[in-house]
Write a structure and sequence with these properties.
Elements lengths: L6 H10 L2 H6 L5 E3 L2 E4 L11 E4 L4 E4 L5 E2 L1 H8 L4 H11 L16 H27 L3 H10 L4 H6 L3 E3 L5 H6 L3 H9 L3 E3 L5 E3 L4 E7 L5 E8 L7 E3 L12 E2 L1 H7 L6 E4 L2 H9 L5 E4 L6 H10 L2 E7 L2 H14 L8 E7 L5 H20 L1 E2 H12 L5 H15 L5 H15 L2 H17 L16 H11 L3 H4 L16 H13 L5 H7 L6 H7 L9 H30 L4 H14 L1
Parallel strand pairs: 13-14, 13-15, 15-16
Antiparallel strand pairs: 1-2, 2-3, 3-4, 4-5, 6-9, 7-8, 9-10, 10-11, 12-14, 16-17
């Protein structure tokens, strides 16, 4: 893995890019007062609710809530990962992306050129295989096979399926026109070499499935044998552009079919993906001869909120499902859902969808799919007998480390509650949960970023909002530094202090750069929502200082109330008495 992209470069590339110019090159914008508008590219709408601010270098849709800066837009619109979006912007400005030391060196210009050549060659060979399905003298047996599998010409074309001719050197002769090209074919595992240094095609007499990455580039192939003999499926070995544990067959096509993927179903084979696609179930993907990896899970949870793992109902299928579950636990966040669909004996998605049709198949997905929580405990309860204390202890010993990996508070709490029921101590768990919730209720109410109200806007929220608009306020108003309040128990204060300190260190930053810095912060979404609250943009420094004064008053009053309450039930220490006297005098 190459080194990280320096934060300074990310800030610079944002500053160099005009968000209006970049978005307008993909979505036609119209001027609307100080901002620009368009119908949102991320959901269907008749009247424009997508707004782009040139001043703030920020976009927001009031319809679907999509928002962000130039990097966010490229990630969503062009379906790029974060590093790829940075690369795209760097190419837009004709500059190189630097990398920090610590990882493997960043690719050189020669290596980048090599990869581009690899992608181009793979695309040419995919087209070559596709053409052979139409023109090769032995195409009829390949076409007959596809027809017998019930595949239409349209679906074959949609997945760029093809035919690898039976000759030993078809690809070698067509593309290995020089020693350099032959070496490239060897590197990409399109031809192979035996001990006698004889070279020949890797794929022969097979139905070919081009494997595309998230950007749609062909990176490898899967080949399905037509007749008995040899492995049923042959996959490209790992190469410099193909790492099977990071890719999913059909993922690119699923993202092309759905701007917002509501659901993704993981199946086991290429033909399952294609057959389901023909029946309109165009959100299926397949792993490439590997188990479902953590990288697959991360990729899917970034793209959808519901993942259905479809496996055979036998022992091997259950074991594969459990491995997928274990890999998913560290990435389970609130708002995502993982289910498991186990098929009847002798069925796979391809055969089942042909028997019962799309509507019944999708109904089966909803009705028969087992939620992760149920499959989790069903599996563990088969290993541990909870009719004894020893069995309960063994269950808890195995379950707790797994549950604690989950990052979603609500999902984790649900599994802990289920575990307490099996352990027979649900009352204890309920008591501990109620005590924790009661303690939470004693603290001030959390800031509600979703429904800001001009008349009741808190000083913390106001200061955050002002800093987002004008980071230079941190240096303009040094007396309004909230950092000394770091130790107080007040919702939002930690976020305000972090934001203030960043703005103080980078007063020349714009809104887009500030939001980029906090992209992975737990409250990044709330910051973006707060950006949508409009206010009168004048006397900002005065309003910022006044809000800080209100914040201090708020804190002092809260502390005074706390000391008065304590004095009613117990004696105050001398230090607390002195503090209370000072606070009372301050209020006068």
């Amino acid at each position: 893995m190459s080194g990280r992209i320096p934060r300074e470069f990310i800030d610079d590339i944002i500053a160099r890019t005009d968000i209006v110019e970049l978005i307008d090159s993909r979505v036609q914008l119209k001027k609307a007062g100080r901002n620009h508008q368009a119908c949102c590219p991320f959901h269907n709408e008749k009247s424009p609710s997508f707004t782009v601010s040139q001043d703030k270098q920020f976009y927001h849709c009031f319809g679907c809530g999509a928002h962000g800066n130039v990097i966010s837009f490229l990630m969503e619109f062009d379906r790029l990962e974060f590093p790829e979006a940075i690369e795209e912007l760097a190419q837009y400005h004709s500059i190189e992306v630097p990398r920090e030391k610590g990882g493997t060196p960043a690719p050189s210009a020669e290596q980048k050129q090599q990869k581009e050549s690899d992608y181009a060659l793979m695309e040419k060979i995919a087209k070559y295989f596709s053409k052979q399905l139409r023109v090769h003298p032995e195409k009829d047996k390949a076409v007959s096979y596809l027809k017998n599998r019930g595949l239409s010409g349209e679906i074959v074309k949609a997945f760029d399926m093809g035919y690898a001719p039976p000759e030993w050197d078809s690809v070698l002769k067509t593309f290995g026109i020089s020693p350099i090209y032959q070496e490239q074919l060897l590197d990409l595992k399109l031809i192979t070499e035996n001990d006698n240094r004889r070279r020949f095609d890797f794929f022969r007499d097979r139905i070919m499935f081009p494997i595309r990455d998230k950007r749609g580039r062909v990176i490898g192939f899967g080949g399905r044998v037509l007749e008995d003999g040899g492995p049923k499926y042959l996959n490209s070995p790992e190469t410099r552009i193909f790492h099977k544990g990071h890719e999913l067959y059909g993922f690119y096509q699923a993202k092309q079919a759905h701007r917002n993927l509501a659901r993704v179903m993981i199946v086991e084979g290429y033909m399952d993906v294609v057959a389901l696609g023909q029946f309109g179930i165009d959100y299926a993907v397949a792993s490439l001869g590997t188990a479902t990896t953590p990288e697959h899970i991360q990729m899917l949870f970034r793209a959808t909120s519901e993942v259905v793992c479809c496996y055979d109902g036998d022992r091997a299928g259950k074991e594969a499902a459990w491995r997928a579950l274990e890999n998913a636990l560290p990435y389970l966040k609130d708002g995502v859902e993982m289910k498991f669909l186990f098929l009847p004996d002798g069925e796979d998605p391809d055969t089942l969808v042909r028997k019962i049709g799309k509507e019944s198949f999708e109904h089966k997905l909803i009705q028969d799919a087992v939620p992760l929580s149920k499959f989790f405990f069903d599996n563990l309860l088969q290993r541990h007998h909870i009719n004894s204390n020893e069995g309960k202890a063994a269950l808890k010993t195995q379950a707790m480390p797994l549950i604690e990996q989950i990052i979603g508070d609500n999902i984790r709490e649900t599994l802990l509650s289920d575990l307490s029921n099996f352990m027979g101590d649900q009352n204890k768990h309920k008591y501990e949960r109620d005590v924790a919730q009661a303690n939470l209720r004693k603290t001030p109410k959390k800031l509600d970023f979703n429904t800001p109200n001009k008349s009741t806007i808190s000083p913390i929220r106001m200061m955050i909002r002002l800093l987002l608009d004008d980071p230079s306020l941190a240096t303009q108003c040094p007396a309004a530094n909230p950092s000394p309040l770091a130790g107080i128990d007040m919702p939002g204060i930690k976020m305000l202090i972090e934001l203030y300190q960043f703005c103080f260190s980078k007063p020349q930053a714009n809104t887009a750069q500030v939001l980029e810095h906090f992209r992975h912060h737990p409250q990044s979404a709330q910051l973006a929502k707060l950006m949508m609250w409009e206010y009168a943009e004048h006397n900002q420094a005065e309003v910022f200082s006044d809000s800080f004064t209100k914040l201090l008053d708020w804190h002092l009053q809260s502390r005074m109330d706390e000391l008065f309450s304590k004095s009613r039930v117990s004696k105050l220490s001398d230090a607390e008495k002195q503090e209370l006297n000072l606070l009372v005098k301050e209020q006068r």
